[in-house]
User: Which sequence fits this backbone?
């Protein structure tokens, strides 16, 4: 298992943009990609390198971090014909930080495993202010091995990184925490 140096970051919105910036500040070589030219410009301003396509970002990366709106986007970006799986180098680690449904998280993780990759679902809690400050909380689902590889990457954006169990349990833990907060 090699040390992670190059990270592709896909999805540079309100949360993803500051998260990618914190990875760059931590010394990672971040290859950023988003469909929004404005988000790409801000990522470059914050220390990331712009990739001209998802494939060019992912093909050189030791790890890929995604922050996308919904399960359908995550599935399309990972499993799609021109998606992450089609371009990732052997042995790459995937960290999906999107908040999505548990079945989609498990489906994409199973596909990653079938293709020989390590993957964690690692949704975040804390909002934009915590993303900017690098003080997010990550609830992580995935194998012990995948978690061990992902932890140093996630710690660069976090105040807490918690392994919740196997694939999908990061999403399940986030739902439980969100529901508990809603009833307080």
Assistant:
């Amino acid at each position: 298992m090699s040390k992670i140096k190059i990270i592709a970051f896909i999805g540079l919105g309100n949360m993803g943009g500051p998260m990618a910036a914190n990875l760059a500040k931590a010394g990672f070589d971040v290859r950023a990609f988003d469909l929004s030219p404005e988000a790409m410009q801000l990522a470059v301003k914050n220390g990331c390198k712009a990739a001209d396509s998802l494939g060019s970002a992912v093909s050189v990366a030791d790890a890929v971090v995604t922050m996308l709106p919904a399960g359908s986007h995550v599935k399309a970006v990972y499993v799609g014909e021109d998606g992450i799986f089609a371009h990732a180098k052997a042995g790459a680690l995937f960290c999906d930080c999107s908040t999505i449904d548990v079945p989609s998280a498990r489906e994409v993780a199973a596909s990653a495993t079938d293709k020989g990759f390590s993957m964690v679902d690692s949704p975040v809690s804390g909002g934009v202010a915590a993303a900017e400050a690098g003080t997010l909380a990550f609830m992580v689902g995935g194998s012990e091995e995948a978690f061990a590889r992902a932890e140093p990457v996630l710690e660069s954006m976090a105040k807490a990184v918690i392994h919740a169990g196997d694939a999908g349990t990061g999403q399940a833990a986030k739902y439980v925490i969100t529901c508990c907060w809603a009833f307080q």
Summary: Residues 169-182 form the longest helix (14 residues). The domain at 6-182 is CATH 3.40.50.720 (Rossmann fold). The beta strands are 6-10, 29-33, 49-50, 63-66, 93-96, 118-121, 124-125, 136-141, 158-165.
